[in-house]
Amino acid sequence: MDARSDRNAIPLAVDLDGTLIATDLLWEGLFILLKKNPLYVFLVPFWLAGGPARLKQAIADRIDIDPASLPYREVLLERLRKEHGEGRKIVLATGTPRKFAEAIAAHLGIFDRVLATDGPHNMTSGRKRASLVAAYGDGGFDYAGNSRHDVRVFDAARSAIVVAPDRHAARWQAAHGAEMVPTPKPTLKTFVKMLRVHQWLKNVLIAVPMVLSHEYFNIDMIWECAVAFVSFCAVASAIYILNDFFDLALDRRHPTKRNRPFASGALSIPFGMGAILVLLSIGIAAGLFLSLEFLGVLGGYIVVTTAYSLSFKRMLLVDVLTLAGLYSIRVLAGAAATGVDVSFWLLAFSIFFFLSLALVKRYVELRTTAIPAGERIAGRGYRTEDQEIVAQAGMASAFSSALVLALYMDSVSVRELYPHPWLVWPLAPIVLYLTMRVWILARRDEMHDDPVVFIIRDWRSQIVVLIGAALLVAGGW
């Protein structure tokens, strides 16, 4: 018998979570469940008290997964397909609930048998080893796995294939010289994408109250703005990670979002949860150096952004009003950090201006998402036929922001604050230029970024903003 025939006579058992797929369905299922109804969080401890199998079964009974969208380890999957085609028996041996395991097996069509968590029996570690030994004998199977739960199964297998190992599996692999399937390692770019560093640009809004009060050279205020900026950046990144957990299934169906670190499986959910705790700790610790008012605003931001991730983002118009409010919260945070009063004019302008930009985001989604008439965009409250009303509302908001600014220019406040008020009048047409240009590019399908980030990055917008800043400074000089 040749080597290939001998190999084909030995079944190959394959773990699922972390091995065949670059994610863990227990964690994914938990976030799908909480997105469905956040109140399930109060039942999770009771399910967990009944053991891991009870928790897995409770989650599986209440949700479904999409096997086609999961991040498979393509190198391993191609190998399994090839060996299955050559006649080798392939077994899916996983601690995942049977409902999920059989759905994946049916989708891939390469497994001859499925061993999975069923009822009270958690198919991991010793139980998985016992099941495979009972079916194929000690040393009568090969096994592919990735974690400390797989080490006991490795010991009973004829040969082991170690995939993306944790430190326990890596130590076992090094000691036994087992085969290693290469998987890409996270890079600095991966962590930058996880943190959404480019979104930190939005937190520059914290400095707006200081700038408008003409305290450009106040060292204390500059320091307070810097600390507030760090605090908001850390907290915002934590919320972005949490949002990614709730949107995994949606992101994987999106042409670009599917490359995000958690959707692609480049980073694990447990790692992300640890990152959330660290980032929240940094954000709150930084906030402790500032006023209680700032901590109150920061707490409000955390509550509203979490509510947005869980629910508001799927509600018609509530989502864009929330986004506009979150931009305004950054302005309020800057005021709370520096002790500067925020005028009615600034808040009114902020709401209309950022509502227009939030509507641009939804308009672009409606333009770029192919859905049948009458159906909503996945995870949103909008339908294709809403395009025109969204665009009209967005442009009306843009003009309203310019109108508020123009009325402010003619107010007593401006005449008291600016020795040369006529120099700041061009700010109204500058705002119109920025917003209308964004809308025109969106209509041309040339708007691919978050519009706020686009304005900050776009060189034409940068020039116009610099002209406006120079006029603002000159008017108050």
UniProtKB/TrEMBL annotation:
Chief place of localization: membrane
Superkingdom, taxonomy of origin: Bacteria
GO CC, alphabetical: plasma membrane
GO biological process, one term: glycolipid biosynthetic process
Localisation: Membrane
Transmembrane segments: 221-242, 262-282, 288-309, 316-336, 342-360, 389-409, 421-440
Protein keywords: Cell membrane, Membrane, Transmembrane, Transmembrane helix
Membrane topology: Multi-pass membrane protein
UniProt keyword Mitochondrion, yes or no: no
InterPro entries reported in the protein's UniProt record: HAD-like_sf, HAD_sf, Prenyltransferase, UbiA_prenyltransferase, UbiA_sf
Record-level Gene Ontology MF annotations: transferase activity, transferring alkyl or aryl (other than methyl) groups
CDD domains: PT_UbiA_2
NCBIfam families: PRK08238.1 (NF006088)
PANTHER family listed in its UniProt record: DECAPRENYL-PHOSPHATE PHOSPHORIBOSYLTRANSFERASE (PTHR11048:SF5), PRENYLTRANSFERASES (PTHR11048)
Stated name of the protein: UbiA prenyltransferase
